[in-house]
From TrEMBL, chain A:
Amino acid composition bias (Basic residues), ranges on this chain: 17-26
Ranges annotated as biased composition (Low complexity): 1-16
Membrane-topology descriptor: Multi-pass membrane protein
Alphabetical list of SUPFAM superfamilies matching this protein: MetI-like
Pfam families assigned to the protein according to its UniProt record, in alphabetical order: BPD_transp_1 (PF00528)
Chain positions covered by the region annotation Disordered: 1-26
A Gene Ontology cellular-component term: plasma membrane
Source species, domain of life: Bacteria
Protein name: Sugar ABC transporter permease
Primary location: membrane
InterPro entries: ABC_transporter_permease (IPR051393), MetI-like (IPR000515), MetI-like_sf (IPR035906)
Subcellular location: Cell membrane
TrEMBL record, chain B:
Domain ABC transmembrane type-1: 91-282
Membrane topology: Multi-pass membrane protein
Xref: Pfam families: BPD_transp_1 (PF00528)
TM region positions: 30-52, 91-114, 126-148, 160-182, 203-225, 261-280
GO cellular component, one term: plasma membrane
Gene3D superfamilies, alphabetized: MetI-like
PANTHER family, A to Z: ABC TRANSPORTER PERMEASE PROTEIN MG189-RELATED-RELATED, SN-GLYCEROL-3-PHOSPHATE TRANSPORT SYSTEM PERMEASE PROTEIN UGPE
Taxonomic placement: Bacteria, Bacillati, Actinomycetota, Actinomycetes, Kitasatosporales
GO biological process: one example: transmembrane transport
Primary residence: membrane
UniProt subcellular location: Cell membrane
Alphabetized UniProt keyword annotations: Cell membrane, Membrane, Transmembrane, Transmembrane helix, Transport
Descriptive protein name: Carbohydrate ABC transporter permease
Family classification: Belongs to the binding-protein-dependent transport system permease family.
Amino acid sequence: MATATAQRRPAAPPGRLARRGGRRGGRGRSAALAGYLFVLPVAACFAVFVAYPFLRSMYLSLTRWSGFGDPEFIGLDNFDHLMSDPVFWDALWTTLFFTLACTVLQTVVPLLLAVLLNRGWRFGVVFRTVIFVPAVVSFVVTGSLWQMVYDPNFGLLNRFLDDLGLGSLAHPWLADPSTVLPALVLVSLWQAAGLYMLIFLAGLQGIDPALYEAARIDGASPARQFRHVTVPMLRNVIAVVVLLNVVNGFKTFDVIYVMTGGGPNRASEVLGTYLYGLAFGSSAGAVPSFGYATAISMIVFVLCLVATLVQVRVNRRARDVF
Amino acid sequence: MSSSPRAAAAPALPAQARARRRPRALLGRALGYLTLLVVAAGSAYPLVWMLLTSLRPRNTVFGGGFFPSPDEITFDAYREAWTGLDFPRHFLVTLVITAVTVAGVVALATLSGYAFAHLEFRGKQVIYVTLLSSIMLPVTAIVIPLFLELDTLGLLNSQGGLIMVYIGTSVPFAMFLMRAFFETLPRELVNAARVDGAGEFAIFLRVMLPLAAPGAATVVIFQFMNTWNEFLFAQTFLQQPEDLPLQPVLYSVVGQHSTDWPLLCASLTMSILPIVVVYVRMQRRFVAGLTLGAVKN
């Protein structure tokens, strides 16, 4: 949210000037009226399906409520309870670990792939298309497919290891608490790499070839060109990719819900699956606790907010340096 | 985009490598090619396996090699998914939900995107940033109150309610894309039409909308993909089994037939077909959209 504020700021003065000009006559007023009318439907949607639910979430996080009768206001008791809830802390750490691993892998791998692909190859378009295809596949399909890939007895992965003579490495990947998270991170990478690679490719197209020309004349090796031309020129794109990764990591739900349901024994429980289970059954097995679950959702929101604000801060400082 | 990387962005490198024919450059080239091959193979492998498994008879799934022998290929699993799982119905439901959502999102996003790009009104920046802030709001943070809200409005278990939630929650990002697109169009067009005495809505409808097709196409692709693939809201807000779109149906199929891999793979394959076709055919617009959305802003 603040991203947009920071980036739009330079555009503000011309906008203000134009507005002042517009206010002079009736035309300006009719344009302004049209502006409000054109924006009204979106604003209404926003109010009903985003703003109101969000505000209600804030309120519900301060209540105890099973969905029947009226919510009972209990102040900060839910958050107090969170502090001593071991499942919450485990889910928080799992979320942070998952987010960190995904962010690092899903930034570095796509960036290197994009740089490689951008050097021009016969069949480059085919490579690009194939690597991107997993990104259009839904989380449910991805999760179900990889469940079969990881199947302990007949899964693609264990049979592949067997064929390589590495049968001893065969493993119940999703059933072992120590391998389930890396296995899920790999699925995430498989699906996300193509999208971020395309974003980086689009960014690379925008770099002036003359910069590389100059670097080469100065005798810079490809590695130095990468470090001193590509990375600085892609700074904003990298920032966007990192932010998208972090936010997507914090709000992870679908793949884990489909593949493990947070198991085995909560080893892959993240905040998203924990709060969903509390509100809509399964994991608690008891009455829904909407109040407690929304309190956790507020924690997810705060994590995303902090990530956004940090990104804006870092981005602005980086801009000052360069 | 297809040939431009070679032509524009790094023209000298391959040429240089070819010209000098240095062994080291050739080796680097070969390693690069190999890397791309391995990565592409890793991306495609599970999907190809899924396709092949969907064509096998049930009794050869757990044995045998990677490729089924030609004489054992069968479409039984597709037949079963088609009739046994009532696939056409859920396919149609998904198509209708997606089509209505896409139409709604494109209409609202075009209108508001244009307003934010070319009309001046008080509080424009504040309104824009407020609306856009919802991009960063995690859906898991609003799924519970949305569920309660739909319940209050009597729209739980209704596809109409689900569509409204889809439109409401996805329109801000689409609006962001359309605004970025409209900003690439010259404002003189608007001003000239105004001088000619055209009304604001007429300017939008007759002058700007016809030029908006490329931007709208991008929104259509993104929205089609997101809505077709959406799981959390559909799973939470709809309960009647016969009304469900594909994603929650697939989820329950996986739960009920977890050992019937050909059936599973056939269902999964059919469900991604429309998406893959749309993406492969409209790839260029997709890339253009990414440039507009992620790189420019």
